[in-house]
Amino acid sequence: MLKLIPLGGLGEIGLNMMVVEYGDTIFIVDAGLMFPEAYMLGVDYVIPDMDYLRQNRGRVSGVVLTHAHEDHIGALPYLLREINVPVFGTPFTLGIVRHKLEEHELLSTAALHEVLPREHLKIGPFEIEFIRVNHSIVDGVGLAIRTPVGMLVHTGDFKMSHTTMEGMLTDVNRFAQCGEEGVLVLLSDSTNVEKEGHTASSHEIGAELARIIQAARGRIIVALFASNIARIQQIINITARLGRKIVFNGRSIEVSVSIARQLGYLSIPEGMEIDIDDLSRYPDDEIIMVTTGSQGEPMSALARMSAGTHKQIKIHDQDTVILSSKFIPGNEKAIGNIINNLYRHGANVVYEKISNIHVSGHAFREELKMMLNLTKPKFFMPVHGEYRHLVLHCRLAGEVGIPEEHQILAQDGQIIELDDNGFQIRDSICAGRVLIDGKGVGDVGRSVLKERRLLSEEGLVVVNMAFDEETGIVVYGPDIVSRGFVFETETGYLLQDAQCVVLEIVEDITPDVPNRVERMRQRIQSALRQYFFFTIGRRPVILPFLVEI
Amino acid sequence: MLKLIPLGGLGEIGLNMMVVEYGDTIFIVDAGLMFPEAYMLGVDYVIPDMDYLRQNRGRVSGVVLTHAHEDHIGALPYLLREINVPVFGTPFTLGIVRHKLEEHELLSTAALHEVLPREHLKIGPFEIEFIRVNHSIVDGVGLAIRTPVGMLVHTGDFKMSHTTMEGMLTDVNRFAQCGEEGVLVLLSDSTNVEKEGHTASSHEIGAELARIIQAARGRIIVALFASNIARIQQIINITARLGRKIVFNGRSIEVSVSIARQLGYLSIPEGMEIDIDDLSRYPDDEIIMVTTGSQGEPMSALARMSAGTHKQIKIHDQDTVILSSKFIPGNEKAIGNIINNLYRHGANVVYEKISNIHVSGHAFREELKMMLNLTKPKFFMPVHGEYRHLVLHCRLAGEVGIPEEHQILAQDGQIIELDDNGFQIRDSICAGRVLIDGKGVGDVGRSVLKERRLLSEEGLVVVNMAFDEETGIVVYGPDIVSRGFVFETETGYLLQDAQCVVLEIVEDITPDVPNRVERMRQRIQSALRQYFFFTIGRRPVILPFLVEI
To answer: What PANTHER family does UniProt report for this protein, alphabetically (chains A, B) (predicted)?
Structure first.
């Protein structure tokens, strides 16, 4: 039996990581991260729990990457640090991976293997073919995996859209050939299953961008995702037509452009690119700047421009700022604030909500149906989505003719066993999420997050007191200090009154009472909790330090 | 000169409050709140800074409410507690206000005056007429305010949509008559100025709801905004046609339905409504439940159903749950999680993204243009929006023919002086935002929020030590305790090593050093900061308590 074990991505958008297993061989499709949810206070990012791989470390033979977005490669350094297996990917994907591993000081030991679309590689009993897909990054691929029980097709992240950079279209013919050969199971991207119809043509997006840029009288600043090389090429082409100069600003965009250029995926006419420090030598209406920060990231170039703190760029009227990207849910407020501030500086701002300047990289419903009809799988398993996306994608497959008993509605951590006769979903392995905070991997859990939440909501009150060990007399305090609770100059009386509350308890419990300090600690905690809730309606964390000396 | 002073709502969505002033008379249009932004940790809600009213308390003659949404009436209790002025509103608006003031123990002293659409009221030199508008709540009005310098029209929140409950349509004829009479200045709702075209017809929404409900085989649960009485009436009508029973569940919906019923705005056929405790007496396919929680509010009825903790309702397959409301930005994750969990319990879930079951209450661009053309104002001032909405609404007015020099692009706290000859925007008054946390009004400010943020991100480390005052010898500690920092059983060595760091400093600073304790405190703080950042990449708040006894 073939085993599929999703470690992430089947229950959330992001965190994509799938174990494929047959006999003694395991390989992994993607190793992605997820950005923390709002309740994960202080967490930098989230990676899949890799315990299953740790336990089967001897059998893990490789990682195959579909493309270079963080939700597909972000967990790779954490995987390789523990289990150093060969990594397979297309040239641009490995270019980004190289840069990432260098930052993690893992590049020198990593084994990276370049594979091109329509090329094959062998891992144990698996023969894996890369099939080009169109996505919002260059060099994305889906996989056709020939296994002893039949062919598995994994779409990666894809869309069908029929206009893009040369050579970057989804290789529908190859998917069709797989369909003709016979596909046992299709794993397909569910991200946009809620969206009717099909993604807009990037040709139209380019035309709209050109129209806006052509109409602008002053400087133009375009913010977008650093890895969206096709969009960057569109802007370069427009810049060339208008005879403007181009500036790339922002670390991630500089990295991405440099890798794409080296690989020949991006062509910039000689003499067009200038350095940001030479900007002052050109009039505003000869400049197009390409930058980062389209998601409102607080330290990004665009955020600094909107706040007026960017070293080289001061926004003024006549500037046109174009946000050529999606408003990702959760970032809307931050993006909105940046747009408001850009308008306050007098710029004209063009963004997705008011103009047709972005298109998603993930297939809409009509495209998902096309993929199902191209590959004609016997079984269908939706991937890359929250639970509702997976349910809706199963229903969609039903409309295309996959019977319910051939739809595999699986979730992270479940073991799907499969061959030509059927499938079963077996008991789960432990597939949680591991939180990364600073250098700590997994040491921030539920209890630490709960403490952070309590601290964040109402702050903290610390009570300090010392007693003479023998006589029980107070030798210091009560000293009461707060953080994040109240603004003390205005409500200082609150903490003074709290001192009285504490002193009453101390008087009440005479030195001869057994466990006196422990009892005081408990009474102080509950009395202050009541007192603060009664007077000001808040429940700060209360930390009494009572020491005997 | 007429003075307009926006205290809120011109720079944000929500917090709507506008001062209108002529000579010795001030009155206020709306007194709304705003829900806190993500960075306002622990804050319950936000109200406008009312300092200008406090300083001019003797001249404030009334509050006129356009409708009963929280962003228009939520700050009223805080206003009335300080300045008890008469309140004017339509019957449903005052019904909700009465309930709110009762909760704040302010009802007995409040002076509430009912005004109907097309009725007039006089406040000093102002003659104010209520004009019916269609919005996502019943009994909304705009205002035609006749002043000594000319007529001001304030739209309130409105849309033009031509199908709704009987008698709840926007009174376009009256706005047209104002236009014929001559409007000096139009203040118009900017919320949806980013949206092309016009709002969908609520007739279509009703038809879609009916189709979904008719097709459902089991129990039906509809979640919506409690105040959306027109939508509730649609559901009652569908329920009647199908001969089902209806249950209202959730506190706010019960209040809203009861007020609307008393006023005759909602008609429920005899015997249709049943109590939630009688549910078990009816088969599932005879039930329609109307409930709250469509924004993913964690304590709402729908959230408890999805979590499996609702006392009377356990979700199972055959249930159909309909979220007939918008996904408000910021709530998307919470709503998504509820939908995922409802699917996990086997329910079918229908929501805005996959079905046409909600329509906005705010005019889209075509409707905004219609309002401009109906009222033909000399001056135009956009209200109810973030800065970008106000800018875009000014531009839209320009398209309709309001010249740029007649567009008033104002912001919270500015004083707009206006008469037939022109306007000027004068220096600002202090118009900040006041944060409400528990019973505290305004005592949580920037510094407290910053402390909460620091505590929330990396937690807290407390160091406790006591020294003999004379000898300088350590008599207690160092005792090191953390909260929200690390999970101590896994990384306990961190805190042990931190003890050594502290002890080294103590040894280093001999008892004869002047200001010894203060110097130790500073050194401990910076040494621990460095130590934790180096070892684990985090920067907790460090609180050293060093006392001399």
So the answer is: RIBONUCLEASE J
